Amino acid sequence: MTVPFFRPSITELEIEEVLASLRSGWLTTGPRVKEFERRFAETVGAKHAIALNSCTAALHLALEAVGVGRGDGVLVPTMTFAATAEVVRYFDAVPIFVDCDPVTLCPDPTSIRAALEALNAGRTWPGVPPGTKPPRVLVTMHYGGLVGAMGEYRRLADDFNLQLIEDAAHTMPAAFRADATAPWEAVGGASLVTCFSFYANKCITTGEGGMATTNDDAVAARMRLMSLHGMDRDAWKRYTDQGSWYYEVVAPGFKYNMTDVAAALGLAQLGRHQTLWAERRQVAGRLTAALADLPLELPFEPPDRQHSWHLYSVKLRLNELRIGRDQFLDALKARGIAHSVHWQPLHMMPYYRERYALRAEDFPVAASLWPRLASLPIFAGMTTDELAEVTSTVAALLRANLR
Ligand SMILES: Cc1ncc(COP(=O)(O)O)c(C=O)c1O
Predict the structure, then answer these.
(1) With a 6 A CB cut-off, is 167 part of the ligand 1 pocket?
(2) Residues 6 or more apart from 176 whose CB is under 8 A from it?
(3) Structural domains in the chain, sorted by start
(4) Which of 199, 208, 341 is the pocket-test mutation for ligand 1 (most atoms within 8 Å of CB)?
(5) Per-residue model confidence (pLDDT) at position 12
(6) Of 125, 230, 245, 330, whose CB has the highest number of CB atoms within 10 Å?
(7) Taking 80 as the threshold, does the pLDDT of residue 125 lie above it?
(8) Ligand 1 center to residue 196 CA distance, Å?
(9) Ligand 1 centroid vs 169 CA: distance in angstroms?
């Protein structure tokens, strides 16, 4: 038996919605995109939602909207996917890396504060070239679907006058609260801009796609404008009888709009997102129960966070094992269990390492954790047999290789 790393949950509902959009004759941005934006904003409790063709586009537009420019420093995690930092480079700005929390793998507020204090006092920080402007923007990221320390990120944003942008590629839905008894706050309306991904393996998918949410009217207007060539007015309406052929280009924008075909898929998925989430939670619970006694640190949900369970990423206790992470993953592969690693820290990737003269030990938590990380399959609709195959294979492999 083989088990995929992920399998999108596509039902007749998604197929019918996509067929209806194809039959409507309106393929690109149109009424379904507008409806998807409206319902998404309502779901996460944000004033505006802008549907885009990726989360990367959302992150790029967010930085553009807050005015990031050449030589600006932007705080980003090193423990993240390429997109979080590459968008900083689109502006010839400087990614200022920060380390991750050793348990959650989300950006560590202590590391962020240390970077800010050093740079604001004119001291150095790893990889930051002289002349870089002190950061005005913090891009955070919720690892695997577990919300980071939002209270502390917001405090840092207040203390250092930073714009807070969330890379929430993994968190639909997820929530957090100030303590175990406070009311929940959904991810999506809690910072200046929140950026979601609907890539094929995400909690809800449009194949490729993303959404930016914000409560700020000016930021929303700028992002919308720049998402479609910098064309003013409702440019997407120009071929409808409510629109006009006339538009003006007021900025050199991008081509980041979502299609109606993708939004049709998104609407069906959004309608099912609570069910999809419940299924992921159930899979996570079963994985945790079955893997509890092994030389692994397992992901968990603290009482002040709701996990989306996009990923089920474990940390191997290598000191209790005779094999390394790569051998473990090779053995899983040989037994038909698909897997991944999230992630090799960005400061250790050739581009950033060479361009900014970074050393692995500059961010020691991320550097020491990454050889221990392994992501196991988790998805809505995972069968009991698939789950049993994963847990029994992992358990047998680890038990056979105990020190
Ligand atoms: C943390 C993170 N940010 C951003 C992205 C980029 O998302 P997209 O593929 O929608 O651009 C991903 C994709 O997996 C991600 O994991």
Answers:
(1) yes
(2) 147, 150, 151, 184, 185, 187, 190, 304, 305, 306
(3) 12-271 (3.40.640.10), 273-400 (3.90.1150.10)
(4) 199
(5) 98
(6) 125
(7) yes
(8) 8
(9) 5
